[in-house]
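call fold(seq) -> tokens
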Amino acid sequence: MCVRRCLVGLTFCTCYLASYLTNKYVLSVLKFTYPTLFQGWQTLIGGLLLHVSWKLGWAEINSSSRSDVSTWLPASVLYVGIIYAGSRALSKLAIPVFLTLHNVAEVIICGHQKCFRKEKTSPAKICSALFLLAAAGCLPFNDSQFDPDGYFWAVIHLFCVGAYKILQKSWKPNALSDIDQQYLNYMFSVVLLAVASHPTGDLFSVPDFPFLYFYRFHGSCCASGILGFFLMLSTVKLKSLMAPGQCAAWIFFAKVETETPENFIAWIQEKRKPYRVWVLCLKPWNPTNKCNELQ
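ret:
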């Protein structure tokens, strides 16, 4: 059982890292900044894979009453807000910055439990929430690549995440399973994002995307949808096999692991910058030498 839990945890961490890096590549490197289409594609792939898994008996989706489905609709709207605002924010912010802001959603949940539900909250949890809030508050003053638009969408994203988790925790435990909830989220997101692609202008702007017919764009989009699906499945499995504390520890490890590559690359680039300048400037000048273009 312990080995099985470790395998599920490692699978979750791998999917978490790969999913974020793939999305970041599509959004920031290829600059496919059409969130209604990108997120619509991801949810379509996720919904199709989940439906196929259900038909093959690999996943269990229960038939839900209309009242359960209609009651869950506000959460599905928040889910669309999460993925749309998250996509807009991630396209402009570094992964460590985005995840730091994303963590502030826990402050909203903690505040709701303390102020509205009058639940007992341990001092350690309150201190943790305050530290998260302080870390996020210091970010704009220490971010060398500060982007107001990115922070704006990140704030919307974290509020949607907080509200979604509050609704999810207040939901009747036997009404809809986690898989049922995600299946409804996928279906609602595909429809809403497809409709929204017209008024947002994404549908008419995408033909101008320079990498539209490149294999690396197609491969990255397919990978993002598949990885998102496996991340969802591994998350559900993680929650079902482990206690909340163990699950939180694996999520924390996955976030640290995901932040590390970008931080390491930034550190290497900063360390190598003086060396690169000296090497380029010591070369004999010729028309193809770009030393004279250095600022």
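The chain is about 75% helix and 0% strand.
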